[in-house]
Amino acid sequence: MTLETAVVGGGVVSDYHLSGLEQCPDTNLVAICDLDESRAREKATEYDINAYADFEGMLARESLDWIHLCTPVGTHLELARMAIEDGIPVLIEKPVTESVAEAEELERLAEEYDATVSVVHNHNFSPAMRKARRLIEDGAIGELRSVDLLYAGETYPDDVRRGAWAFELPGGEFEEGLPHPIYMVLNLGGYPSSPDAIQASTSLADEYAQGFEYDSVQFQYTTDDGVLCSGTVLASDVPHKVIQVHGDDGSIEIDVVSQSVTVLDRDYQASPKARALANVDHVLGRLRGTAENLVAVARRSIDDDWDSVRNLDSHSYQFGEEVRAIQRGEPTAVPVAEGTWTLRVMETIRATTADDAEGQAVPLSTDGT
To answer: Is the pLDDT reported for residue 177 higher than 50?
Structure first.
């Protein structure tokens, strides 16, 4: 079954969706919709598809099996509602909605209509994240105990990347990028035991003319299974993005920048020789990751088929997983719940910034206030 698919929103992120859907053998890209009719026509000409400036008009004229929402976040809930009520599966760019309350309403709609709704959390589908998740599921480090993320090199609040609208956020462009590291921790470690389990601290390391309130964040929580999860996200010039996953029988280190995964499963304190092996294991992990990446890049340069593309491109990989779920009637690759929990962490951070100059955590209520 090939899915007749449309993209709504013609901004920067839509190019990932348009190109990925054009290459995916299980989708037929048929339309794009954008309020800016000239932009919609430009994209439609590039991809040889139909252009619309009216979402309802597109729904009336096209027989769609899947819709990708790449519009400003304030429009997500209402556009998704219209797709759901028309019985069309929908994939929504992050963040899933503006608030926890809206995300919970989206979850309610999906349950009421038995609808297929998913969220773009593409970083979870990078080669390193996929490999680490397989190792965890296969028991390579035993029972999971903690997930710790350091995400330095995030966008500065006053960087101009996604548009002037991001400057209206308390953390500017820095805040707009926060969902990525948050959902990566949620994906590996699990969800918080409750909204009240989430704690956060913020700080401002630099001064900005726009008066942004923070450019550094720490968050933490504990899952129902007792897994300790934490993340530190810093706006800085040099990217250093590492996730350490600890279990009863060892640890996994994920280097997000180099896309390498290292398993550390020895007693490195047992002897001088064992301590030396710690360095050997780290080097071997990096070398294996580099070799795997080089092979994947070489394969794509020689044979630019769908499998080669999706192996390296995290957006395309998620698209493939979501297509398979729709075709088989299985759960989506990223449930709305993961988007909702991402927003719960985000709202805790915002509440901390707004209500406590000391950076102490402010509990988040279930209605998102």
So the answer is: yes
Specify the range with the lowest mean pLDDT, choosing from 39-53, 82-96, 119-133, 165-179.
165-179
CATH class, 3-120 region: alpha beta
Residues 6+ apart with CB under 8 A from 271: none
Residue 80 has pLDDT above 90, yes or no: yes
Q: Supply 239's token pair.
A: 């990217």
Q: Is the pLDDT of residue 361 over 60?
A: no
Domains of the chain: which residue ranges?
3-120, 124-329+344-353
Give the separation between CA 364 and CA 195, rounded to whole angstroms.
6
- pLDDT: which is higher, 70 or 269: 70
Tens-place pLDDT, residues 87-112: 999 999 999 999 999 999 999 999 99
Question: What is the CATH number that goes with domain 124-329+344-353?
Answer: 3.30.360.10
Prediction pTM value: 0.89
* The pair of three-digit structure tokens given for residue 255, joined into one six-digit string: 């280097």
- Give bridge partners of residue 202 from the DSSP assignment: 217
Closest CA to 97 of 356, 354, 346: 346
